[in-house]
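Take a look at the protein record below and flag anything odd:
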Amino acid sequence: MREPGRILRAWSLAVAFCAGLLGGPFAVQTAATAQDAGSLKTVTMLLPGQVGPATGIFWYGVDEGIFKKHGIDLQIEEPAAVAGASSLSLLDSGKYDVGYASSITMLKDRQENASQLVQFYGLFQSNPNCFFVRKSSGIKSLDQLKGKTILLASSTDNSSGLAMLAKHGVTPTTAKIEYAATSATFGAFIQGTADAMSTYGYLNQPLLRTVNNLDTTTFCQADDGFNFQWAGIAARSDYIAANRATIKALAAAIAETYSGAAANPRAAAASLQKHFTQLAPPVDVTVEIIGLQVAWLTTPNTRKMPLGKMSAADWDATKQMGVKYFGLHPDLNIADAWTNAAFDTK
């Protein structure tokens, strides 16, 4: 058995990458020569540091020349301290051309701050949050968490997760539900002082297994009626209107990048190792993560569509979830919050 200190040190390395403790910003240096760069459209992209390997795949697209092939010189920055609403404010100000945006957070920003951001590429179209328990616990359903200790990340809006627990009779009166920083949540779960925790399913199951020799069972929100459009790539509406050809090229390059990574996960993992030598998870772990996250890139409504194209039904469901659990107003107009213009064939 590994000592707790070694376990936490090993886990802290993985969490450092996944939680974005990267010390940035980190800008992509493309291989384009000065002559090549003159024929490319420069696009600046903001990836919040907390996203981790899910968007680390963009580096694979740059290294493989996929964005250049589509006429784009992609310049990525990943500021470690930027996430959520703070990243949206940077995008809204025009500091970056495009960037990662949480769908619910963006809708709230449009409601409360008249944000002009619009999602034009559906990156994660399903909610990846899951409750984790140790497989050795024998827990096979959420109702068995009554009387147990459950940890939630204090930096996250846990409304839908709490509703999911309540659906199974697990409430603050029937269980010990506590909040902690992400690193403390993982530390407690690894050491056995917490029976369950909430985190991303595709990401942390392979990390826990490989780094800590800890097999887990997951209960995912998307499988229990709590699914919604999770996150996408967004830009200001005026940028999209003025750069339609660029948006189309960017969407095509992103789709090719993620499809290529799924087909060649070891090459994509090597890109992460190249750019984040000290912080990236082991290559075999990243390979598994890339395979697992594919399930969250689409929904039943979009699986037969081009990768990244979004569904009106999914956005309507997202609004309903937002109204019920995240403070969105029932009269909020979401029609202008997303667009499939990048997939127009005209």
Remarks:
- The longest helix spans residues 244-263.
- The first strand starts at residue 41 and ends at 46.
- The two ends are 61 Å apart (CA to CA).
